[in-house]
Amino acid sequence: MSLVVFESLKQIHCAECRGGPLRRLVREAGVPRCLDCADLGHLVYLPRGDAALTRRAREASSLSAVVVRRHRRRRRYERQGLLVEDAALAHAERACLADAEARARRRERDRARRAAEDVRFTAAFAAEILRLFPGCPPERAQAIAAHASVRGSGRVGRTAAGRALDEQAVSVAVRAAVRHTDTEYDALLMSGVPRFTARARLAPLIDAVLDGWRTAA
Ligand SMILES: [Zn+2]
């Protein structure tokens, strides 16, 4: 059971000090009083909207009051906010801030962990490329692996087969890299040659590069 403070737009005055009109008031046995006369004048107002802050402020405040306003059409009182002790609100704000900082630190740790995973995965991918294609220049293998493992790219390195370093998936990534880097495939596409025609035309050239890479240089 909490104390209730009413918001009012009516011309209501305090029964005790005659102050008013009162925007916020309490009713004791139907008699309106201002917050000062009701010994609530020292409390600060916290509008609703932040559930965690509200809960913490209420818990930390030895005295608090719910502020309500009557909604005429809905014919009911609706909660507007909370009156709490200044120190309790400050305490609650610090606690919520600490939470936000903890969440930010956790996100940073997750990000660093994923980055480390990506580095490890890219290295493993490059090693697998070099195992299958010992003649591939190491910097090319590294570049192909890095390109294939870009997070969120949907590229082969992010697929299940790629993650498992499936031989076929690794070969597909290498073949695609050769197609784009070592042939005029992209230029053919730009000049309007249909994709499958361009692929077919370049297949022997790509096979030759890959065959060359399959044996150590
Ligand atoms: Zn008063």
TrEMBL record:
<protein>
    <submittedName>
        <fullName>Uncharacterized protein</fullName>
    </submittedName>
</protein>
<dbReference type="Pfam" id="PF10056">
    <property type="entry name" value="DUF2293"/>
</dbReference>
<dbReference type="InterPro" id="IPR018744">
    <property type="entry name" value="DUF2293"/>
</dbReference>
